[in-house]
């Protein structure tokens, strides 16, 4: 078995600890040291005090409260989390010019070439953690390794609020004793399948040939696990990642099954309004509208519709979104809805839109959208609200990650 150990451990994986819950504990001193759950219907985040009772992200609120009856449940504050994320990423970009965002609360940093000006990777990681704690008030864990995969595993092992470097000559000694779920792509079902064949640790995976793994898990997963179990990961930290879609989603929890069509439509309007506002702000337009659904049985479904031409018009994209929801209504009524989301794909980075004749003398949708955006920029997003949302809970939005 050949494993390349060339190079040094210069890739950092920085991951905020229980991000949403930590922001709540930071902003409300009475919550510190106490079990905190963010989100009532579905757990968006849980403090480590709540996790000690078995509470986990994406768990139903009822189950979470049953596990930890004395937990303090707080509503999410997405604006506070966005501000905290922006502040943390300022520290990241001040630490290294090579930063690859994975989500609102984690990123890879390449610190190769910085030894003379910033010190060793461990010193850089320690200083990054100290700055995030002092400047943003949040705990963060940093894993350091030669590959992106192992840096992420290191940060998982170092949580919470830790720092761990895996030296190149100790990679497999560190990796192989870990449970198989530490490998990217191995969820509960794949882990159960592997367990039935006596495969429980990364070492067990590494003992299998690529042929055996592909026969067991399929070509793509088999090849991936064959490489990762040997810490073969040739990916580099990539900056300036181009977003191929703009989207948003909202978790509804068990309450989603009892929502009326009008209530679901209010969620649809709210999500599409947010998505198109972001597209116009970023100078983007798109052609394909994608609907994403999750059901009571944890199953998922996707529907899509491609428009004749790229647009960022709220009205046009909303019409397509409503059509997709109506088409999916029979499936939703049978299986119960727990999450709804939309994305606009086939992005035109120039934001160009095909205008249509006749232009007329009245207000077209582009003019209306531009006027609404201007008012909101000057007076806040709540200054103008769509009529269908009056008197309704606009809800919170789960972050949509770059593709």
Automatic annotation (TrEMBL):
GO terms for molecular function: damaged DNA binding; DNA-directed DNA polymerase activity; magnesium ion binding. The active site is at 106. GO terms for biological process: DNA repair; DNA-templated DNA replication; error-prone translesion synthesis; SOS response. The record marks 20 as: Substrate discrimination. PROSITE patterns: UMUC (PS50173). It is an enzyme of class 2 (transferase). Pfam families: IMS, IMS_C, IMS_HHH. Its cofactor is Mg(2+). It is found in: Cytoplasm. Poorly processive, error-prone DNA polymerase involved in untargeted mutagenesis. Copies undamaged DNA at stalled replication forks, which arise in vivo from mismatched or misaligned primer ends. These misaligned primers can be extended by PolIV. Exhibits no 3'-5' exonuclease (proofreading) activity. May be involved in translesional synthesis, in conjunction with the beta clamp from PolIII. This is DNA polymerase IV. The lineage of its organism: Bacteria, Bacillati, Actinomycetota, Actinomycetes, Mycobacteriales.
